[in-house]
Amino acid sequence: MFGGQIGLSVSQKKTETRLLNAERPTPVKAYGADLPQTEQFTYLGSIIRKDGGAEKDIKSRLNKARNVMRTMNNIWKSTQYSTHTKLKLYRSCVMSTLMYGSECWRMTKSDAAKLSSFHTTCLRKILRIFWPRKIPNNDLLQRCNMEEMETLITQRRWRWTGHVLRMENDSIPKVALRWTPEGKRKRGRPKQTWRRTVEGESKDLNHSWATLGRLARDRQKWRSFVAALHATRRERH
Predict the structure, then answer these.
(1) Could you tell me the residue ranges of all domains in the chain?
(2) Which domain of life is it from (predicted)?
(3) Cα–Cα distance, 195 to 209 (Å, whole number)
């Protein structure tokens, strides 16, 4: 193995492999032995699956955010902290845990609904709005000066896209962004991918990849573009 040439070694007991979308998995060997293959693995805190889906990662993030929310129960119940302070803590502790890696999620409608439900449930708890009291989600978000969860994730996705578009043309993320696999895809409706999501949103504003690339070079213009995209999304809904 190449690593051995520079003094590195691979632990057979600790190393697993994952081939993405391979119809005929080829064994990966280390020192003559096959390394075990896994359906998913955790990398830098995010769960990577062979099909590229984010369902498991989103479920993991929701569980971790619930735990953070639970450990801060005394703060949410306290009368010593203002609502403004509680919301700042919610953003910095709970939302940062929940949204880690969300810029790369391939979300389904079901995923978006679960994230939105968690978000509004937390805000109701902070504002101490419990049954039988009711408040529409739009009014709740307005009182908290918050965007809906799907909009917040869209914002992160487009911020990340801007970073990628500003990279050198031969950088791996930029090459991967525009890469189209060879061959024919399987029959049936194509899966919603991260790139199809971005392309669909940019199409609503009549922007091509070339236009997006020019916009991304100017950070201020890119911020304005992102804001306009969010405004368009709110108008659609």
Answers:
(1) 15-52, 53-146, 154-178+194-236
(2) Eukaryota
(3) 11
